[in-house]
Amino acid sequence: MKNLIRIGKVSSINYELGTVKVIFSDQSNIVTNNLPMLSFEYNMPKVNDLVLCLFLGNGISNGFCLGKYYNQNNMPLEHGRDIFYKDFFGEGYLKYDKQTRTLTISAENIQIEGNITVDGNLDVTGDVLATGTINGSNI
Q: Looking at residues 67-79, what average pLDDT do you find?
């Protein structure tokens, strides 16, 4: 029972299967079999990231990698009681601030597939390129 929940470092990653192998330095550098990551999102850790693992009680051959956790080497980039923040490799982010009711999407390029309806004002800073018809009305 004492080894059901363990902290280790990612030693290798199988991106296609969504699995990682984890090394436990406190147990003579034992390396696990491929452990599946939780599947609520695809966000694979990096080699050497500290991760939390959960095992099924029959050793370290069957279990799951629950993912990274905040620590000295992995501190939150944004924080606060009313903040939701999702970092994208340090190159972009998604942030919702409940206090201001503001959703911010930041990336070098943002592509939206599908129809967009804007119920409110639209302010554009920069150029606008339209490849279709632009219709307007003053109702």
A: 89
CATH of domain 5-68: 2.40.50.230
- Environment class of residue 110 by beta-carbon count within 10 Å: exposed (0-12), middle (13-18) or buried (19+)? exposed
Give 98's contacts (C-beta < 8 A, 6+ positions apart). 82, 83, 84
Phi, psi (rounded to 5 degrees) for 130 = -120, 130
CA dist 85 → 69, 131, 139 (Å)? 15, 34, 39
What are the pLDDT digits (tens) for 46-71?
A: 999 999 999 987 777 789 999 999 98
Supply the pLDDT for residue 1: 59
Per-residue confidence (pLDDT) for residue 83, from 0 to 100:
95
Domain boundaries, the chain: 5-68, 76-111
